[in-house]
Amino acid sequence: MLRQKAFMKKTKSGKVLKVVKEHYLRDDIWCSVETCKVCEHTEPVLSAVPSINKAFRLPHYIIPDTNIFINQIDVMEHPLITNVIVLQTVLEEVKHLSLPIYQRVRDMIANKEKRFYVFSNEHHRGTFIEKLKDESPNDRNDRAIRVATKWYANHIKDLNPRVSVVMMTDDAGNRDKATADGLQAISVKWYIEALDNTEILDMMSSAKDLDDGQKTIYDEHLSSAHISNGIKSGKYLQGKLGISSHNYLEGSIYTKINGEEGTILIVGRSNLNRAVDGDIIAVELLPKSEWRTTPTGVVVDEEEEQAEEESLKAEQEAAAATAAKEDTIMAEPEAEKATAAVEAHKLDTPQPCGKVVGIIRRNWRQYCGFIDRKSVHTPAGSSAPVNVLFYAMESKIPKIKIRTRQAHSLLGKRIIVAIDSWPRTSRYPIGHFIRALGEAGDKSTETEVLLLEHDVPFHEFSKQVLSFLPVEGENWVVQPEHFAGREDFRSLNVCSIDPPGCTDIDDALHVVPLANGNYQVGVHIADVTHFVKPGNVMDQEAASRGTTVYLVDKRIDMLPSLLGTNLCSLRSNVERLAFSCIWELNKDAEIVNVRFTKSVIASKASLTYEEAQNRIDDASMQDDVTSGIRILNMLAKKLKQRRLDMGALTLASPEVRFSLERDTQDPVDVEMKELKETNALVEEFMLLANISVARKIYEKFPDSAMLRCHPQPPSANFEKLEKAVARFGIEIDHSTSKTLSDSLDSAVLPEEPYFNKLLRIMTTRCMMQALYFCSGAQIEQEFRHYGLATDIYTHFTSPIRRYSDVMVHRQLHAAIDSSLSYGDELTDKEKMNDLCGNLNHRNRMAQQAARSSVELFTHLFFKNKTEEEEGYVIRILKNAFIVLVPKYGIEGIVYASAKVSKADSGESATAQPQPILVYNPETDCLQSTETLAEGETPKTQVQLFQKVMVQISIDDDLKGGGEGGMRQKLKMELLKPWIEGISVHGIANKDDPEAHAVTSTKKRDEAPVPAQDKKRAGKRTKA
Amino acid sequence: MSRAELLSPEGLRIDGRRPAELRKITSTTCVLSQADGSAYLEHGNTKVLAAVYGPREARHRALVLHDRAILNVELNVAPFSTGERRRRSKNDKRLLEMASFVKQTFEPVVIATLYPRSQIDIYLQVIQHDGGTLQACINATTMALIDAGIAMTDYVCACTAGWVEREAAIDLNYIEESSDTSEVTIAMLPKSSKITLTQMESRLHVDKLEEVFRLAGEGCKQMYEVMDKTIRDRAEDLARKMAV
Q1: B13-243 maps to CATH 3.30.230.70
Q2: Is residue A812 scored above 90 in pLDDT?
């Protein structure tokens, strides 16, 4: 083995340092070709008969350069591309340029079927090259790639069967030099075209081929040096763009403005300047005169779509002209809106507005969505490449222009698309197709979509992960050796109480009255860490999944189901390993002492909430388990009272449960989730356990304990709500959780029993997210859990479904067993911090996915159904309001503008929706447009908390432009109060097709309603 | 992910070595004519000069031991030894500690009872620093002591090993050392495989300790061969010259 030295000089920023590194060159780096006799590799990666392509005579291996990976990663991931030699030079450059892409390349290398081989050319004696004088690093790397290709070409030229290597690069200069060296070189485009596969052709990124000579629509982004200088000097502000979920042309960033935290609004296409939701952007504040007041409007962008459709149609002939026209169309109404808003409410403090000057980091990912039917103009069956528009499922994402040859077969399907670039000349970002998921509206496709959209890993557990399960499988039982270091609690009357149908039981309880009148209470948690050892593949998988995701019809497990629903699950009448938290509580439920231990338990009963409740209520049941539950219930009530006295909040959310049909899993009924006393029973003890554990692990790991905090919400969150409830003479004091809890308790309207719940729901939305954090990363005062009113908190009680609990179990075990050896995964502050970040992200995503799943099932439930229901106004927007229907726990937007039918807008593209109600920022309500005298209340108004009747149906086709339900949306229409132009007639009329026809035409005709008409209309509904 | 990849999935370390490979080692003895024994050792880019004076009369009477010699080790790191120039004071605690490690390592090996009431001075100078200073110092000292003709029971060979990402690796260089790797230095008497020094300043999972130890031990044996060859070559060279 030969060792040679080479010196590499490197300077680091800040101080210029000379770093001398050794660089060993080796003889034992093999080519990894199956038929090679010279090399001594044991497991060749590259097959003897590699890829075949019409462009080349011989089968060949591909050697791509860096930019191929960076720009065409989706193509490289296609199953057709195999037998690729990834040079170390290339891999290092990719890693330097983009970590996510590097990760994807690494995944491909790990995938045996792809046959990607990493050739460490930088450490190979034959392929290492020194940088020449006056040679740029890029040129040197290009040369290194050529040298390596040459080496391969020479190395394999005598092999049988005959093979060759092909260098793949989009750099024409590099290709020329390669050809001059006698090498084969090709660009991706040629290579792919010679493959004759439409799918892979569509996947090709179109980053380079911009249309020249087009009119630029957007301002140029500033250079990164310019931006960082601007941010340093305070001229620009930096933040993560969050697009409003109701309007994709309005975004905001949360940042420090002149030292004060605040939100900057960014409104309109040109101000957003090609930024996409989640991008880190640099923003320049607009002058004060252009600042606006909230709230946001909803964009009903039909006329805009129309224009875009035309532009696509006319793209070839008169691209520039259309674009110009569009611009004027777009500019006018927006400007109007803005000035109107400013003039009308000069008194109100406007919100700072800004404009994007540059993008610091893109947050582009792959988007699920569908192709806009209207943008496809070729005849059916044509396979010529066309530009079509793609709608992402997430309404925050702008439309994406993609070029595809399979437009017709993709219509009506859900597809995945990636953004490649967003040039100044293009109204929409340009992207490329990645793959199709399936028919839209199909339950399994839609479920996959929502899992993908929320970044939920839902693939099956790999063999490697499953290999870490106990070998006994289902037959695993507690063995005598398991009792080492565990207490034997098998004789105790332990029972578990869970929701019906729960198979992953991770907690169980027991109580024993003690001789001194106190009670011994135990909480037993499934001992997941006995099975999941730190650092192994199963553990890594669980850490990356972070949490189990519960959807309406299925569950995406964090741990393989053998553990989750069997070996760890504390089922009744089987012996299971547990981690127990044992308190001695006195009669007033105060903790006398607490200890923690690993244990073996045998649960005597696993009950549902309802069964447990029935046992408590049924006086004839006097067995040990039942009387235990009664004692627990008594203690839990005292615990809860004390917690409430401390200021814990009782919040509410409109959660519903679907009853599903057994076979099809289609929803047949919806009901509100009911809470029973026993829910609270379990909850109280879990809280108690979590708090006790949090103290213990914080004591042992002051720098790295995994804790959970809930920050106090900033008062800005409450402004609107306070204003709205002031009308009812109710005050909300949110200075501490105690005062907030008290004011919520006293906020009761006798005539409206639902009001209190509604208020709690809305208060919930003012709250901050609870977060995991590492105790060393925050000061102790910030550990507080606002909602639970406790100074320290963590998650200990659900290790089967949350990874945070797994970590806490490990830390607690280390805290009680000093002889235990553990690695730095429990002590490394940075690793813990990273993990917390991931868990918080996964948690948030899991919640959103669950919510989307409920939404999906709501849509399925309302399919072909129209219901009339009572609802409450919970948010006012500029030209719409949002109604919550408690019965189904759903929300929908009701537009406050008369609809302009498509036919109309087609004729005159300038037609704007007629506002019937306008926003009044003083009262935060929508009111009719008539001019008012001082002190007079408007005739019609919509305000927060107002009770309304709405008609709910599914708007099957809001944006897809044709049948197929491309983006299903719940449609809510106002029934009561009657507002002409907005409200619709109820189902009573709907049965009669004629009456329906009349209403719909009327709607259009009567768009601008005179005031007296409205009065009449109002009477009509009352009658 | 943000940290540098110390061990690539292809199994190469940052400088191209495999986990069980030492760096290139060159050594010579008798480099300083004034000293009684001296050695110069390059361990990759770590370069150490060792000079031995004595056994000679002890400088401080108070320290003299009537039945054996005392060892005195002084260690100095040149200001130019790292990329960033940094002058260390003579009382730098790290240097004093390292010197005392060297001293403790050699006390049981040098047969000090042969030299009563005397002192053996070992001066170590680190000229260039690229990880593994302690092992290089110990190895250089061994050679310098042999060069000085001081009686020892065996060679002392030192080697470091650590847990790099997912594998045990030997002879860590500066980049590997400084990215929070657990590192063990051991010094071994190669004939008896006895260990005279173990030094570890970071946390290492106990399950991994054995593997790291085994590898470090192997490294020591390899070091022994390199050092022994240098000494024997030198001796042969001398013998040849004397014969002429």
Answers
A1: yes
A2: yes
Nearest-Cα residue of chain B relative to residue A106: B9
Nearest-CA residue of chain A relative to B165? A535
Task: Name which of B158, B129, B130 is nearest B142 in CA terms.
Answer: B158
Q: Which tens digits make up the pLDDT trace of A66-95?
A: 989 988 888 888 888 889 999 999 999 998
Beta-bridge partners for A681? none
Q: What is the β-pairing status of strands A925-928 and A386-392?
A: unpaired
Over residues A724-754, the pLDDT tens digits come to: 787 777 888 888 888 888 888 888 877 777 7
Contact A22 B205 (CB under 8 A): no
Question: What are the extents of the domains in chain B?
Answer: 13-243
Cα–Cα distance list, A487 to A569, A592, A628, A887 (Å): 18, 21, 21, 48
Distances (CA, A) of A650 to A287, A663, A694, A725: 43, 38, 22, 18
| Amino acid present at A514 | L
Chain A hits for B45, Cβ within 8 Å:
20, 22
The residue length of chain B stands at 244
Which secondary structure element, helix H or strand E, spans residue A851, and what is its range? helix A829-862
CA distance A599 to chain B (A): 25
**To the nearest whole percent, how much of chain A has pLDDT over 70?**
81
Give how far Cα B75 sits from Cα of B70, B84, B121, Å. Answer: 16, 19, 11
Measured CA to CA, the distance from residue A902 to residue A962 in angstroms comes to 13
Give the model's pLDDT for residue B197: 93
Block residue for tokens 């229409």: A973
For B107-158, write each residue's pLDDT tens digit.
999 999 999 999 999 999 999 998 899 999 999 999 999 999 999 999 999 9
| Structure-block tokens of residue A316 | 């070839």
Q: Cα dist. A193→A190, A420, B5 in Å? A: 5, 19, 37
Report the distance separating Cα A972 and Cα A986, nearest Å: 12
Q: What is the distance, to the nearest Å, from the Cα of residue A577 to the centroid of all Cα atoms in its chain?
A: 35
pTM over 0.80: no
Q: Give phi and psi for A915, each to the nearest 5.
A: -70, 130
